[in-house]
Amino acid sequence: MKKAFLILLPCCAAVYTLWYMHFGSLTQNSGALSVTGLEHPVLFAVWGILVFAALYLNIIYACRNFSKPRVFQYYFCGFSAIGMLLTLLCDFDYSKRAEYLLHCAGSLAFSVLTGICVFLLFLLNYKKSRLYAAFTYIIGAILILDLILLLIFKQNALIEAVPVIFALVILPVYNFTDLFKEKVNASR
Question: Which of 2, 46, 146, 185 has its CA 20 to 30 A from that of 110?
Fold first, then answer.
């Protein structure tokens, strides 16, 4: 039952993210997930809760089952949760300056800490196989490219959603397929 839930939840979160993105332009700042959240606050809250739960339940499952759990991963999860709460509870409305800054700080904390957690999951297993090494580079490239595109084009749904959807796909694959496990067992 736990396995089914941890597979189904990220699938639902990925589909919901793709559906939620249709409310705005994929490539314009006006289509950023937070901007869309101003018009659809309940849908934005559902998106945030669903994505956070899907990512962190899978990250924590992976940390407990496939690598030595490290305390900082739990701290990152807690601070990321605070970041997501700020993102969902504070409007992305520049006229409400304090709320806007809290929203941006929360969104940044969630994004950065989650990206680091997923990256470290593979980096800490880098030497176990070439597949871990390859995915460490792929995840690093996605995060760096996403940051560069964000700085150049500002926020938009496509730039915001790509790393989220990638993580929503790779975490259940990591946790519940033999793709990574066989390579680790073969190297021992």
Answer: 2
Sorting pLDDT into bands at 50, 70 and 90, what band is 159?
confident
Q: Residue 25, exposed/middle/buried by CB under 10 A (0-12, 13-18, 19+)?
A: middle
Determine the Cα–Cα distance for residues 58 and 9; give it in Å rounded to an integer.
9
CA torsion, ordered 144, 148, 150, 151, to nearest 10 deg: 140
SS3 for 25? coil
Which backbone phi and psi does 19 adopt, to 5 degrees? -65, -45
The DSSP code for 26 is S
Q: For the residues 165-174, what does the mean pLDDT come to?
A: 94
CB-based contacts of 120: which residues, under 8 Å, 6+ apart? Answer: 73
Does the predicted model carry a pTM greater than 0.85? Answer: yes
